[in-house]
C-alpha cells in the first residue's frame, strides 16, 4: 500500500475489520487523510458491505491480504481460521465476480484479483542440520501438504481461488496467487 501511494498515482482503498491481529504500528493509520487513500472498516465476510465498497470505489484490482495468520492461535481458535481464511475468501471472490461481471470489456480484461498465500501450504522443510548435501526447497510444483490449521485454511483458500477460474463467465478473470515466505516478512518486521 505504501509503495502504491508513494510511487504511483493509483488510489488505494484499504478494507480492514481491525481484528485483534490488526497492527497499528505497521498499518497505514485508519484516519489518514490523503486524496489517494480511503479506509473502510469492513468485514470482508459481509457481502452487502463489499457490494457497497465495489460500487462506491469502482476498483481496477483487488489484493486479498486479509487473513487470520497467527499459527499459535489456530490450536484453540480453529473456527476463526475456517471463517476468516476460507469463508471470507469465498465471500470476496463472489463479490468480486459480481462486480467484475458488471464491467465493460476493457476494464474486465485489465482487472486483477491477487490472492496472497503462504509457502506454508507446502508443509515443512527439514532443518538444515538434518540434511546431508543440498537442502530441498519448495517449488511451484511441490504438492500441497499443509501441516497446521493455518496452512490448511490457506491451502483451502488457494483452491477456492483456482476453482473460480472455472466458474462460468469468469474464465477471463486473472487470479494470480502470490506465496509469501514467512521468514522474509518476519525479518523485514524486525
Ligand atoms: N506475515 C507473514 O510472515 C506472512 C507469511 C506468509 C503469508 N502471509 C500472508 O500475507 C497476508 C497478510 O499477512 P499479515 O502478516 O500482514 O497478517 P496480519 O494478521 O498482520 O494482518 C491481517 C489483517 O487482516 C485483517 N482481517 C482479518 N480478517 C478480516 C476480515 N474478515 N475482514 C477484514 N479484515 C480482516 C486483520 O484485521 C489484519 O489487519 C495473509 O494472507 C497471510 O496469510 C503472511
From TrEMBL:
Coiled coil: none
Keywords in alphabetical order: Membrane, Transmembrane, Transmembrane helix
SUPFAM superfamilies hit by this protein: NAD(P)-binding Rossmann-fold domains (SSF51735)
Residue span(s) of domain NAD(P)-binding: 3-164
Lipid metabolism keyword on record: no
Pfam families linked to this entry: GDP_Man_Dehyd (PF16363)
Stretches that traverse the bilayer: 163-185
Keyword Amino-acid biosynthesis in annotation: no
Domain of life: Bacteria
Protein's name in the database: GDP-mannose 4,6 dehydratase
Amino acid at each position: 500500500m505504501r509503495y502504491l501511494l508513494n510511487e504511483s498515482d493509483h488510489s488505494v482503498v484499504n478494507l480492514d475489520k481491525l481484528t485483534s491481529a490488526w497492527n497499528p504500528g505497521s498499518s497505514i493509520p485508519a484516519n489518514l487523510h490523503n486524496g489517494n487513500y480511503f479506509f473502510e472498516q469492513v468485514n470482508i465476510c459481509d457481502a452487502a458491505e463489499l457490494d457497497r465498497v465495489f460500487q462506491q470505489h469502482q476498483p481496477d484490482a483487488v489484493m486479498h491480504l486479509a487473513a487470520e495468520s497467527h499459527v499459535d492461535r489456530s490450536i484453540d481458535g480453529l473456527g476463526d481460521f475456517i471463517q476468516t481464511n476460507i469463508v471470507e475468501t469465498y465471500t470476496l471472490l463472489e463479490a468480486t465476480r459480481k462486480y467484475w461481471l458488471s464491467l465493460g470489456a476493457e476494464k474486465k480484461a485489465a482487472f486483477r484479483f491477487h490472492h496472497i498465500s503462504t509457502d506454508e501450504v507446502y508443509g515443512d522443510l527439514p532443518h538444515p542440520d538434518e540434511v546431508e548435501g543440498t537442502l530441498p526447497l519448495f517449488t511451484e510444483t511441490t504438492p500441497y501438504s499443509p501441516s497446521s490449521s493455518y496452512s490448511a485454511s490457506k491451502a483451502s483458500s488457494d483452491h477456492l481461488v483456482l476453482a473460480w477460474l472455472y466458474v462460468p463467465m469468469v474464465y477471463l478473470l486473472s487470479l494470480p496467487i502470490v506465496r509469501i515466505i514467512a521468514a522474509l516478512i518476519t525479518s523485514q518486521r524486525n
